[in-house]
Amino acid sequence: MLVSRGNHKLGTDTLILNITSAADCISRKLGLCSLGTKCYAMKAERMYKAVLPYRRKQTEYWDKTSPWDIAGDLSAEIRRSTKQTIKYIRISEAGDFRGQEDVNKLIEIAEVLEIIQPTVKLYAYTARSDLAFGRCPSNLIMNGSGFMLHNSFTAVPKKDLVKYQVTCAGNCRSCGLCKVRGNLDIKVGIH
């Protein structure tokens, strides 16, 4: 199973499964992502030589593995966790959905996990406003990058954050705004 457990921002209660790498992000290629070269996920791929190959292996795993097997593998990984209970699965820390097939596959994974791991929430961010997200099960939270799905999550210059009511704390260990269906218009400072 090609998942990682959290990071300094997400915390250890979160598993990460990427569909693609930031270098291969279709949203950037289609011009749907407003960040372009300021993409935070691309920084890790440039700074650490093992990150891009690892994320590309995650893409291979995603492409070659059925939704039911991915859900089973995630469930096994959750059960193996002894130091900290897994509460969340972050889908695509890097990259984005390549097409509707990826969205549909994630929905199937979430449906299975809703039964076998009912306390675990999956969440993702997407700039793919051209795809359909209407039939997400209740354990899957979709954050639209610059548009509303279950929440809207938009990067703005840090100096402008004071203008907005709901802002990202920049630390997912102490904040859960993106992990609930709140119809929130969340702003984050470009970092």
Largest sheet: 7 strands, mixed
Backbone CA Rg: 16 Å
Share of helical residues? 25-40%
Structural class: alpha/beta
Strand content: 15-25%
Low-confidence stretches: none
Order of helices and strands: EEHHHHEHEEEE
Number of H- or I-type helical stretches: 5
How is the largest sheet built, in terms of strand order? 1-2-3-4-5-6-7
The beta-strand count equals: 7
Distance between the termini: 30 Å
Main features:
single chain; 191 residues; alpha/beta; 7-stranded mixed β-sheet; 7 strands
Task: Describe, in plain words, how this protein is organized in 3D.
The chain contains 5 helices and 7 strands, in the order E-E-H-H-H-H-E-H-E-E-E-E. The two termini are 30 Å apart. The chain has a domain of 131 residues. A hairpin with an 8-residue loop joins strand 1 and strand 2. The model has no long low-confidence stretch (mean pLDDT 90). The longest helix is centred in the middle third of the chain and has 17 residues. Helix 4 crosses helix 5. It is α/β, with parallel strands linked by helices and 191 residues long. It is 30% helix and 17% strand.
